Amino acid sequence: MKIAQIAPLVESVPPKFYGGTERVVAYLTDALVKLGHNVTLFASGDSITKARLVSVTPTSLRLSNCVDQMAGNILQLQEVMDRSHEFDLLHFHTDYLHFPVTRFCNKKTLTTLHGRLDIPELKPLYKKFNDVPVISISNAQRRPLPIANWVATVYHGLPVDLYQPGNGDGDYVVFLGRFSPEKRVDRAIEIAKRANIKIKIAAKVDKADERYFEKEIRHLLDQPHVEYLQEIGEAEKGPLLANAKALLFPIDWPEPFGMVLIEAMACGTPIIAYNHGSVPEIVDHGKTGFIVNSIEKATEALQNIHLISREDCRATFEKRFSNIVMAKNYVRLYERSLLKQPERSFYLTPAYRK
Amino acid sequence: MKIAQIAPLVESVPPKFYGGTERVVAYLTDALVKLGHNVTLFASGDSITKARLVSVTPTSLRLSNCVDQMAGNILQLQEVMDRSHEFDLLHFHTDYLHFPVTRFCNKKTLTTLHGRLDIPELKPLYKKFNDVPVISISNAQRRPLPIANWVATVYHGLPVDLYQPGNGDGDYVVFLGRFSPEKRVDRAIEIAKRANIKIKIAAKVDKADERYFEKEIRHLLDQPHVEYLQEIGEAEKGPLLANAKALLFPIDWPEPFGMVLIEAMACGTPIIAYNHGSVPEIVDHGKTGFIVNSIEKATEALQNIHLISREDCRATFEKRFSNIVMAKNYVRLYERSLLKQPERSFYLTPAYRK
Which GO terms describe its molecular function (chains A, B) (predicted)? Predict the structure, then answer.
């Protein structure tokens, strides 16, 4: 199949810095190539891919320090339209920017929505575009926008050899991610304290969270059971997870997909997570971890963590969350889309529609 | 003629706060209605217009405090496309966001570019879209982007009754606008000092300019010949200009169109301006003011300001810069566009183009 993957330009694919969407697009694109498809990736020029790369900007927008980020996005959109005849299907990862354009294009399109959708402005938008087929990254992600034209959920996946499973004998638990209020590192620290176990924290402070971090979090990091590793690289993440007894994920918001959950699973590391957003879709309670609703339950779960088989965690990852599984799920959607959707004729304005 | 005017959503039309583009769109729209055209204005719901108003958002984006500004813009763009069959011509004031869409639309479009264009990212964009007809607000504005498909320059205009001409006997000069480095209020203060005349300064401090203001400007305002009025309302602007001996406009950047220049002219107030950007297109040297290149020349010009006839200033405003003149210039372009541009057929991807 001749497939175009259209990535955001803000980060390269894969991202040099933080960039969940660009990471998933990288894994998906390479997996599609591995499955034998003819894939073209539209992304910034510093991207690295097994597919054919088409770039309208030499570097990611974050690195280029440009004044007008929208210019690159519109330029890429036009580049995609100019080449659309080369593809069977266009798969967008760029939110809704292309919606007005792609309805004029007699080409099948699918769009994966990667972000949170509980933003009031999105309701009238997706009501207007309720004919545009969109894919969710979890069922939970759809809740604020039931009106959108959801065609499927496809969970994110990682290359199977990206992380090696470990035996978790580091005698610590781990918290990974960002110091934003909804991630609730304070809960993680308290859970570890009550369970009398060390916690290693590898997290970054976003500009927007600096005040919260200074006021609410910094003093908690001084406790003897806390080890603060700051922001770590991809190479350190594997061993950190693989040697951890458990990953603590006590979130307070409807996270559409927690990448760190499947990273932990890939390392064979059980998860203790609060029941929000996509958590119950990713974590099998009692099999790959425990889903809890309080610090007490989380502490109890941590004391029972030996009941979870690390082999089961890794096996579940390979079965459900590898990038090949993700790519196969998408290919099924591409095929269904090519079969089912009627070939779109040239667009007619409403007055001329029947 | 059935005309759609498409305004930015960030401010209402006219703007409640600062918003040059929305102000011009308001003046143009009302003038087109006055000339007997059937005009629809796409703008935020708190806009006030003599035309038919179509809104996708109840209030301007600035007032709505929304998280995702792009959602409203895309929604409005689709609303325009859905109704495009109702119009002879679509006139956009929303930069380039609509470019990929309007090339699929079998409807004549024109776009006025209101902003500065010396931004590197715009070069490849306008190279890609060099078939899209665009209108400049001064010839100077085009300089960084000779590659764009410029069809005309149309200067901004004001309603003739918006400002009343005055006799300028207030014994002061005036500086109006923002305290940004490129506006060079420091020069204005120095010019007034050397000419031994009082200067009244009505200007606002944008968030981005706070440091510059505190460090470079605030201490200059303490001088005895300076009166700092802070930010003033529309009602105070007229008398302030009408009683001023001259407007000082010692800018340091290629301003695409200085609205305050024609506001001064409307009040009969001569201008002393540095030779940058659109200045020589708006100010007639020796007739409506003096164009200078140094503080010395500016001081000399100020000493000779009695040589400029305030009646000539007002007459030039009425002849060249009223909103009716602006609207007539645009109507001529609309007519030319409807006659000249071949009716666009449905878009074909490049492989099928001949």
Answer: glycosyltransferase activity
